[in-house]
Amino acid sequence: MGLSTHVLDTMNGCPAAGMAVSLYTTNSDKPVLLKSFFLNADGRNNDGLLIGHDSLAIGTYRLVFDVAAYFSAKGVALPTPNFLNHVALDFGVASATEHYHVPLLVSPWSYATYRGS
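RE: above sequence
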């Protein structure tokens, strides 16, 4: 059923529009970049699914969210070095026939994730 993500900015109470995100597969010794994109006004990938239901494979993946650049662009005064720079979420896909939704709730100082629907 595919792979999707959604990011909410919990500091400002809005979707994280404009945040840069990269998706990797981590099945080998070196992560392999599958795609990079910026989140739309709803905090989602403009193209919808990151991996379509016909292409999702069992294995391990990594989503990397550029949190520091996003909050810096919003005018948030961040310390040097930033507490959070990039948030990397490593997760596994055990069934290629299910939908995997990986949301991120984030502020400059904390984040949470879960397997959504």
